[in-house]
Amino acid sequence: MNRYRNEKRLLHGGDYNPDQWLDRPDILAQDLEFMRLSHTNTFSVGIFAWSALEPEEGKFQFEWLDKIMDDIYAIGGNVILATPSGARPAWLSENYPEVLRTDSNRVKMLHGGRHNHCFTSPIYREKVQIMNRKLAERYHDHPALLMWHISNEFSGECHCDLCQEAFREWLQKKYSTLEELNRVWWTPFWSHTYTNWSQVESPSPIGEGGVHGLNLDWRRFVTDQTIDFYEHETTDLRRLSPDVPITTNFMADTHDLIPFQSLDYSKFAKHVDVLSWDCYPAWHNDWDTTATLASKVGFINDLYRGMKQQPFLIMESTPSGVNWHDVNKTKRPGMHLLSSLQLVAHGSDSVMYFQWRKSRGSSEKFHGAVVDHDCSTANRVFKDVTSVGQVLEQIASVKGTNKQADAAILFDWENHWALEDAQGYGKETKQYPQTLQEHYRALWELDVPVDVITKENDFAKYKLLIVPMLYMMSKETMRRLQEFTKNGGTVISSYITGVVDEHDLVYQGAWPEELQEIFGINVLETDTYYPKDHNHLSYGNQIFTINDYCAIIEAKGAQVTGTYEEDFYAGTPAITTNQYGDGKGIFMAPRTEFAFLQHFYKQLVDEVGLVNQWVEVGNPVVSVQERADEEVCYQFVMNFSEDPQQIKVKQSGMDLVSGEGTSMEMTLKPYEVKVVKIEK
Ligand code: GLA
Ligand code: GLA
After folding, report:
1. Which residues 6+ apart lie within 8 Å of 79 measured at CB?
2. Which of 161, 303, 363, 623 is 20 to 30 Å from 639 at the Cα level?
3. 45 three-state secondary structure
4. What CA–CA distance (Å, rounded) separates 658 from 665?
5. Catalytic residue check, 316
6. How far, in Å, from the CA of 191 to the mean position of ligand 1?
7. pLDDT digits over 424-440, tens only?
8. Helix axes 432-445, 594-608, angle to 10 degrees
C-alpha cells in the first residue's frame, strides 16, 4: 500500500488508452504535456489493451507499456495498472470458443463487444492468469505503480454447460441434499420437484423462471462466481506486489442512479482493498431538479463509502457529457467543479475521468474527455478540468479524512432482487431503492450526515437506523434490530417489511413476533393502489397525501401518531411509535408524499439529537457535508441550484477554494461550492 498510502495528493486523472495511438508518437508526447498542464496526476492504463499486449497467442509486447509507465513516472504521475480481461483479442475467442458467453436463452454469443467472457471457463481463467502474471512480474516494483485495477465493471452472467455444472456444485455445497433444495425452493408448486441434481438449470425465459428460490440463488451464485473470477485474477498480483492495493470499478444503474442491481456489492466490497466506482449522473436532465439529483448522488456515494467505512475512489466520471444517456448534455459552467467536489465531500479521495482523450473512431468517440478532438488546451472542458485540478491541490489535506454519521439507511441487494421478483403489489411501484433515496433526501436537505449501509455492517454505532421495505428479512436480522433498539437505538420501518425469510419463503402465522415486539403492532393486510388512487394521512394537525401502498395494521402497545383518513380502514393507525427497551420502533404503514418525510424527519432529528451542529439556518438546495480528522474539519458547502442561495452557520473559517475567510452568513452563487476549513 506504500505508494498509495504515501500519496499526499487527491487523485486526479483518468482512463488513458495510449494503446489506441501507438503509431502516433506526437499524440503520446502531447498527452504528457497536457497531463502536466491540466493538473492531473493519476492514469488508469491498459484496461482494454490485451490486443496490444499479446497480439498473437503467446507473443507478448510490453515495450510500449514500459515507456508509458516510465514517462508518466517522469512527470510525477501515478499509474493504476489494469488487467485487460474486460475485453479479449479475437484470436482468443477464435481458438477457444468456450470463453464466449452463453445467454439465458442458451444462445452462444459471437466474438465482439466487451465484458462478455464466461466467468467459469478454465481456459479464460488460465489465459487471464498468464497475462496478469506477466504484468505483475514486469511492473510489481515499478515506481509509478499505485494500484491494480482488475478487469473493468464486472457484470453479466453466463449459462453455458460449464456454468450449469458450477451452479449445481454451488447448490450442493449450500444445501447438501436435494430434499433440502426442494424444501427451500418450494418445488412441489407446479410439480417442479427435482429428483436428480442434473435436472437443475439456471433460470431461463425458455425454461424455469417462476421458482423464486432458484432465481435468488442464481443471483447469489453469479455474485460468488464473479468474485471467484476476480480473486483468481489477483493471485499473482498479491503474491508479487503484496503492498499494492487492488480494486475493481463498481457501477450504478441509471437513470435514478440506484445501486448496480446485478451483483451484490455488499459481498464484493470485502474483496477490494479500496472501493472504487464509476459515477455518471445526468446533470441538467429533464426529470430531476439539480438538488434532487444531487441528493441521489449523495445517497449512492454514502453507500459506496459506508460499506467499507473508509474513503473510496471515483474511478470514472465525465468532465462534460457522456455518449450513452438518451440526451447527452454537457455540463453547464460551474457544474464540473461543483459535481467533482461533491464526490470528495462524500468521501472520495479522487476525481478520475473516463476518458483522458477522445478516440477518433468507434462507439465512444463522442464521449466526454479531458482532451477533445481539437487537441487543444483552450477549450472550456480542458480549462474546467484544469481548475478542478488546481482546487484538488488546494484541498489536498482532505485526503484520508473520513465522514462521521449517527444515522444509517440500510440497503439490501438480496431484498431488492426478491422484491422485484415478487409477483404481487404493484408492478411499477415497488421502487425500493428510490424509496430509500427519498428518506435519504429528507435528511440530506437537513444536512444530517448519513451512512448508507448493508446488513454486513455493524448497526451498534448508530443512533438512528432507517429500514423501510425490507421485504426479505432473516430472523437473524430481526434479532439484530431488536438488539439495536433495546440498546437505545431508534429504528424506522414501513409497509412491505418482514414478509419472507432468506429463502424467499413467506413467514407463517402473524407478522413475525420479533418485529411485533419492536414496533408494538401487527400487520394485517397490504393494500395496493393504482397511480390515480390516494388516501390521506392525518398526522398532528396536518394532512398528507398517501400513494401506492397502505399497510393495514393494529396497534398492540404502540402509540398511534397518525391515522388513515379514507377507505375502509379510515381512522385506523398509519404511523406508530413504540418504546422497546431503551429505544424506539417507528412504523410508517403507508407510502406518503415527500412532504411528510420532510416534516417527520425535521422533528425526529431534533428528538434523536442528529441536528447538524455547524449549520444555524440551512437551505434545502444547499448541501453541507463534513469530512474531518482529530484536528481539522472541512465543511463542503454546495449550492445545487440555478439561483444564489444563503445559509447561516455557527463558525467562520477559511474557504480553500477561493482562499478567502468565510463569515457566518454565506451567500453562494449558482452552483458555487466552498470548502471551509475549521481548526477544531
Ligand atoms: C389460472 C390458473 C391457476 C392460477 C390462477 C391465478 O386460473 O388456472 O392455476 O395460476 O390463474 O390467477
Ligand atoms: C464505463 C466504462 C468505460 C466507458 C464509460 C463510458 O464506465 O468502464 O470504459 O465505457 O463507461 O461512460
Report:
1. 42, 43, 44, 45, 68, 69, 72, 73, 142, 144, 145, 146
2. 303
3. strand
4. 16
5. yes
6. 15
7. 999 999 999 999 999 99
8. 60
CA of 200 to the centre of ligand 1 (A): 25
> In angstroms, rounded to a whole number, what is the distance separating the alpha carbons of residues 131 and 110?
23
Catalytic residue among 153, 157, 438, 672: 153
How far is ligand 1, taken at its centre, from the CA of residue 213, in Å?
Answer: 20
Ligand nearest to the CA of 191: 1
Q: What does the pLDDT look like over 152-207, one tens digit per residue?
A: 999 999 999 999 999 999 999 999 999 999 999 999 999 999 999 999 999 999 99
Rounded CA separation 536/563 (Å): 8
pLDDT at position 321 is: 93
For position 480, what pLDDT does the model report? 98
- Cβ atoms of residues 652 and 661 within 8 Å: yes
Whether ligand 2 lies within 6 angstroms of the CB of 352 is answered as no
On whether the pTM is more than 0.70, the answer is yes
Q: Is 54 a catalytic residue?
A: no
Query: In the prediction, which pLDDT does 2 show?
Result: 80
For 243-290, write each residue's pLDDT tens digit: 999 999 999 998 899 999 999 999 999 999 999 999 999 999 999 999
Query: Which entry of 7, 157, 316, 414 is annotated as an active-site residue?
Result: 316
Sheet containing 654-655: order of strands: 622-628, 632-639, 673-679, 654-655, 660-661
Q: How far is the CA of 358 from the centre of ligand 2 (A)?
A: 12
Tens of pLDDT, residue by residue over 359-375, are 999 999 999 999 999 99
326-335 residue pLDDT tens: 999 999 999 9
Ramachandran category for residue 539: left, alpha or beta (phi over 0 → left; psi -120 to 50 → alpha): beta
- Is any ligand 2 atom within 6 A of the Cβ of residue 322? yes
Amino acid at residue number 394: Q
- Classify each residue of 285-308 as buried b or exposed e, where b means 16 or more C-beta atoms within 10 Å of its C-beta: beebebbbbbbbbbbbbbbbbbbb
The amino acid occupying position 257 is L
Instruction: Give me the residue label for grid cell 482488475.
Output: 150
For the cut 80, the answer to whether the pLDDT of residue 1 exceeds it is no
Residues whose CB falls within 8 Å of the CB of residue 564, separated by 6 or more in sequence, listed in order = 535, 536, 537, 538, 546, 550, 570, 571, 572, 573, 574, 590
pLDDT at position 254? 82
Read off the pLDDT of residues 523-534 as tens digits, 9 standing for 90 and up. 999 999 999 999
